[in-house]
Amino acid sequence: MSDKPFRRGLMWLRNDLRMHDNTALYRTDRGCQSWAAVFIACPQTWDSHGDGDNVVAMRLRSLQKLQQALGQKNIPLYFVELPGFGDVPAALSQIAQKLQIDALYANAEYPLNEQRRDRAVRDALKIIGVPVEYCSDRTLTPPGSLTTNSGDGFKVFTPFKRAFIARHDNGAEGSASLPAPRKKSADHLAQWPEWLALESKHNLVRKIPETVTGYGVADGGEAKVLGWPVGESAGQAQLQDFAAKIADYHRWRDFPAHPNTSRLSPYLNCGAVSIRQCAQMALAENGGRWQGASEGASSWLNELLWREFYQHLLVHYPRICRNQSFKPETERVPWSNNTSDFQRWCDGQTGVPIVDAAMRQLNQTGWMHNRLRMVVASFLTKNLLTDWRKGEHYFMRQLLDADFAANNGGWQWAASTGTDAAPYFRVFNPYSQSRRFDPDGEFIRTFVPELTDLSDSDIHCPPQDLFSQVDYPPPICDVTESRKHAIEVFANLKS
DNA sequence: TGTTGTTTTGC
DNA sequence: CAAAACAAC
C-alpha cells in the first residue's frame, strides 16, 4: 500500500508551463501514485479575450518543450482543442471518467471568466466525486489575502506595497523552491491510453499541434517565437542573465536603446518562470529584504509588486474584467475614436518618431520597452483622445507577454481611468520623453530607419522640409494643442 | 513614472 | 541670466 491518497491524478496545465517550482504540479506528483497532464486549447475564448498569435505561439511552443520534459520522466501530456471555456467542464468530466482520475489539480487564474470556468469545473467534477485542488501559484501571495483594515481590497499601490512588505519582509521568500516532479518507471506511460475520443468529437491526443483553429503561429517549427527562445530552460537562462545585471537595473531601465530590463515578461506570462523564482533572485541580491541594500534589486522588486497589485485588483474589483474603467466617471469621456488616427498609431506612422519607433518595436518583436508603453499609451489616449480599450486590445493582440491584469492595469494607469492612475493632467510630451530617454536617437534609428540621417537633435522632432524628401509622415497632431484639449475634457468630467 | 509657465535663487 | 524651485493643470 502507498501512502498517497490518490491512485490516479490529472494536472491541468494553463499558463504555468514549467517543471520546477510549480505548485499544482508538485502537489500532483506528491499526492498521486500515477498521473498525467492535460492542456486544453480554447481558441474561441482566447480570441474573444483578445489573445493574439504571438502569445498563443509562446504558449503552444512552451507546451511542446514541457511535453518533452515530462516525457523524459515517463509522464504523458494530453492535448485537446475545444471551442471555449464553456465546453471545458463537460469535457474534463468525461476525461476524468475515461482516464479513471481520482483528483484534479491546477494553478488558480484570476480574471473573471477564468474563475467562472474553474468554479464550473469544480462543480462538474463534484458530481462524479472527483476533488479539484486549485493552488496559489501566479502571485506571491493569494489575491484576496491582503486587505485594508476595513477589509476592502487596496486601491492605491503604496499602501498595498506597505502591507505586502509588512507581511513578507521576513525572509520567507528566500526558502527553496519546489522541485520538479520525480521520474516515473518506464512502464508508467503504458498505464495511460494513447488517445481518447470525447463525445464532443474532439480527441484527446498526446501530440501538440503546430497551430490551433484561427491562430497562425510564427517561425514554423522553430523553438523560437519572433526571435525569443521558448521554454523553461530559455526562461531560466534569461533569469540568470538578468541576475548578473540587476544591480544596475535602476540606472538603465528607462533607456530603450540600452535596456537593462529583465525581458522576463513573456516567460513569466506563460509560466516558464515563476514569480517566486524572480523574487528569490532579486531578494538574494538585496540581502533578503524587499527594500534596501541594492537600489537595482529594490527597484525591480517594486515592479514585481506592481504586477502583484494588478493581479489582486481583478479579484477585488471584477468590473475591471467587464470592459469597464475603474473610475466610473471616466466612462463619460467623449473619446474621438478617429479610425485612421488609430490605424496610424498601430502601424507606427504617426509622424512622432519615438511613438512610431515604439509601435514598430511592438509589431516586429512582440515586445515593447516599459517606458515606451507609457509613452504610446499616453499619446493614444490623451493626444489622440482614443478610448484606452482600443489600445489595450491592440497590445493584447501583439504582445508576447499579453497578460490581462498587467495590460489592463497599465492602460488604465496611462488613461487616468484606473485606480491610483496618473492624474489626468499628467500628460507625457513624447518629444521630451524622446530627448530624455533616447538622447542620441539610437532607438529611433533602429526602428525608424527613414530618419537615420537626421542629426541627434532633429531626430526627435523632424524639421518640416524633411517630409518632401523622405517617406515619413508629418506629425498626426500638435502635441501642445491636443494635450490642452485632453486636460480640458477630463477636467469637465467633474462638473 | 509629467509638463509648462512663472518666480526665486545665486553668482 | 542660468538654474533651481514652485504652482497649476
UniProtKB/TrEMBL annotation:
Residues passing through the membrane, by range: none
**Cofactor(s) demanded:** FAD; (6R)-5,10-methylene-5,6,7,8-tetrahydrofolate
Q: Which SUPFAM superfamilies match?
A: Cryptochrome/photolyase FAD-binding domain, Cryptochrome/photolyase, N-terminal domain
Q: Which residues form the Photolyase/cryptochrome alpha/beta domain?
A: 7-140
InterPro entries, per database record: Crypto/Photolyase_FAD-like_sf, Crypto/Photolyase_N_sf, Cryptochr/Photolyase_FAD-bd, Cryptochrome/DNA_photolyase_1, DNA_photolyase_1_CS_C, DNA_photolyase_N, Rossmann-like_a/b/a_fold
**Superkingdom of this protein's organism:** Bacteria
Question: Keyword annotations for this protein?
Answer: Chromophore, FAD, Flavoprotein
According to its UniProt record, which protein family does this protein belong to? Belongs to the DNA photolyase class-1 family. Belongs to the DNA photolyase family.
Identification of the protein by name: FAD-binding domain-containing protein
Q: What's the source species for this entry?
A: Microbulbifer bruguierae
